[in-house]
Design brief:
By secondary structure, the chain is α/β, with parallel strands linked by helices. The protein has eleven helices and 27 strands. The strands form six sheets. Strands 1, 4, 5, 6, 8, 9, 10, 11 and 12 form a nine-stranded mixed sheet that branches. A hairpin with a 4-residue loop joins strand 24 and strand 25. It is globular and about 70 Å long.
Length: 429
């Protein structure tokens, strides 16, 4: 079979996303907006499509409504290619009445759905990572090695491996040892790559490095079924270590840009990095585009603005203001005299009508967007937020916590105005 016919892709999107709160208070992690016009889930789906893999399952269970709308509107395949993006939410069955208990448990419960489609291999992906990868290279290596399991691995300096699953591999890249999130320095040092592998890496380092699991796996179909004939709930913590030594397991080394969008700080920094002159993740690569829902919006409009390293999505209106190193999502609005720096503004789901704007004025309610004469630093402004005139918002020098009567949250040193939040005029944080 061709790669398209022999591989099923499974994207894990069922976690609560508590570390990304408040961005995940009303949506699941894969549905969090990214780069002005995308969602996090668009990254693994686009990588699959660009790798000629078009049969994709998305496993979810928390706050899935917006994700369902996005996926159903964005990914419509022609009937002749056999492609789909199918959302499988946690469901009660005769065997189970509870939620997914982890990544392995989620896949185990859905094996019955995968069996309906001919396939030899299952590609398991995370729904909250930013990277660009050609999965066909992993598949080719997997087949060439006669592997049962292939684990994608990225080299990390030993000073940066905290919280990662690490593996020790032989020079032929067969995995000899796998330790999930080790803390003992002696254990970490025992897992560093050999001089032979180090010499083959394209990116040089003066510090010792380990290979860390990226949470991307290729399983032979029967091997996966056998590996899940138990009560194990997590791939990295239980399944991979559990079958090590009993199956042929290899690492696929990836040295490109990869960011785990697991925290508010990581999300904030990854978005702002896209506004750099030479961003580490190039969303402008025409050969491997990022796909998403087409909103059919007009071009962005900037009136008398002073800008420096910004990204502005379609449908935005920015007027007589200064913006530096910031990103503005679809339908963003910024009023006159405002000054924004290091801001990720997600925009809005709709434009307010003249009648709604008049009603806002009558009730002294801010319009959607940023009002006049606002000064905002190091902040995330979630969708449909309303920030009144004359607000001054910055997390600098303030501890994490809730501010402005709960309308503003500072987390990981980043100020967040939650989705649909309203900040009264003149608010200072």
């Amino acid at each position: 079979m061709t790669t398209q016919k022999r591989v099923l892709a499974v994207i894990m999107g069922g976690g609560r996303g508590t570390r990304l709160a408040p961005l995940t208070n009303e949506r699941c992690k894969p549905a969090v907006p990214l780069a002005g016009k995308y969602r996090l889930v668009d990254i693994p789906i686009s990588n699959c499509i660009n790798s000629n893999i078009n049969r994709i399952f998305l496993l979810t269970q928390f706050n899935t409504a917006s994700l369902h709308r996005h996926v159903q509107g964005a990914y419509q395949f022609d009937p002749f290619g056999g492609g789909f993006v199918d959302i499988l939410s946690a469901e009660q069955t005769e065997k189970s009445l509870d939620w997914y208990q982890g990544t392995a448990d989620a896949v185990r419960r859905n094996l019955i759905h995968f069996r309906k489609y001919p396939h030899d291999l299952i590609l398991i992906l995370s729904g909250d990572q930013l990277y660009r990868m050609d999965f066909s290279e992993i598949i080719e290596q997997h087949l060439a090695n006669g592997a049962d399991v292939t684990v994608c691995a990225k080299p990390f300096e030993i000073s940066k491996v905290e919280g990662l699953g690490l593996m020790r591999v032989a020079d032929d890249l067969s995995i000899q040892q796998f330790v999930e999130k080790p803390k003992d320095p002696a254990v970490i040092n025992s897992l560093t790559v050999s001089p032979t592998i180090e010499a083959k890496l394209a990116v040089r380092s003066t510090e010792k490095r380990c290979l860390a699991s990226m949470g991307i796996y290729v399983f032979n179909r029967n091997v996966l079924a056998d590996a899940l004939e138990n009560s194990m709930t997590d791939f990295g913590r239980e399944v991979i270590p559990g079958i090590l030594g009993t199956k042929k397991m290899f690492a696929h080394i990836y040295e490109g840009y990869w960011e785990d969008i697991g925290t508010v700080k990581a999300f904030f920094e990854a978005n702002l990095a896209l506004a750099q002159p030479l961003p580490p993740f190039n969303i402008f690569d025409a050969m491997t585009p990022v796909y998403s829902h087409n909103e059919y919006l007009p071009a962005a409009k900037l009136n008398k603005c002073r800008v420096d390293n910004i990204i502005v999505a379609d449908g935005s209106i920015l007027t007589d203001s200064a913006m530096k190193h910031s990103l503005f999502g679809i339908r963003s609005f910024v009023g006159e005299g405002s000054d924004l720096e290091d801001v990720v503004m997600m925009g809005a789901d709709y434009y307010e009508t003249p009648e709604q704007l008049a009603a806002n004025a009558a009730r002294s309610k801010p319009n959607i967007g940023v009002g006049r004469n606002c000064h905002i630093r190091a902040s995330i402004i979630d969708k449909n937020a309303r920030i009144g005139d004359g607000c001054n918002l910055s997390p600098v020098g303030k501890p994490d916590g809730s501010y402005a009567n709960g309308a503003v949250i500072i987390r990981d040193g980043v100020l967040v105005v939650p989705k649909g939040g309203m900040i009264p005029p003149g608010t200072v944080v």
